[in-house]
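Sample entry (342 residues):
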Amino acid sequence: MELLKELTGAFGGSGYEDEVAKIVTRELGTVCGEVSRDTIGNVIGFKAGKGRKGQRLKIMLAGHMDEIGFLVSHIDASGYLRVQPAGGFDPRTMMSQRVTVLGKGRTKLPGVLNSEAKPIHLQKPEDRRRELSTTDFFVDLGMKAAAVKQKVDIGDRVIWERDLIEMGDCVSGKALDDRVGIYVMLEALRKVKKNTHDIYAVGTVQEEVGLRGAIVSAYQVDPDIAIALDITLAFEPPDAKDHTRVTRLGDGVAIKVMDSASISDVKLVKEFRALAERRKIRHQLEILPRGGTDAGGMQRARGGARAITLSIPTRYGHSVNETAHTGDIKAAIALLAAFLNQ
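Predicted structure, serialized as tokens:
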């Protein structure tokens, strides 16, 4: 899991994925014949198939390199940073978090993210009932305003700070969405030795703000089959009802049927299920009521592609405590590798 730890620890807010891209470029270089980076910043690896030319399909894999984060939108007279979210945030997950600001000259500055809410010692009953919004939050760098303005500019990126830990049968930390998808893609490719068809493995950018990298790269690749690799919800608090869970940790890789960005190709769903059953790979089916993956962008490129998502069930999505089961990660790697080796 050292590679996954390196990936999740890298700085990769939407629109500034360079640090992650360096890792992905390095790793794709060990398993692909060609690696390039396009204008928007996607990293594209190409692994030629061994089938006859003209009969080979183009299979595109996509895991997104960006993580939810913020952009500095204002520096006030006290040196506090106001921030604009880039990605979906629940304000309740934002309180009292540590962050990293990538300032001028790519200098990383530690800070804390807090809200305008009064400390508990000063609150009145009405203060405790007030709901927070993302606009209530600011970053404190512990510096005077003059020093902040020398080091930080409008538009600089801000991400949460949290190390990946191993916890029981799981791993937990920030940015498993979607560094774990990148990890699955890389580890599966290491197991691919006899692919008949051409494989394009893509680390995409700006997924969290509109699937933008997937759209651009799929237009270039023009795939026949498109496979997104991403997390999905495992909503499992103590009182969760079965029909609200979406997926369960430990029950295997999730084969997506539908989300709000795409409906998976029916034949691909059937094929992946049959392959998982033959290989005795733990798996489950997934319908996600809200949210989408790069499959939604790849599916629509040019004349369209047969698209599907393989998901890693994850608790506490879009927080610093995203948690995935190592068995599910291994199942995702095994299923993807089995499909690509055909």
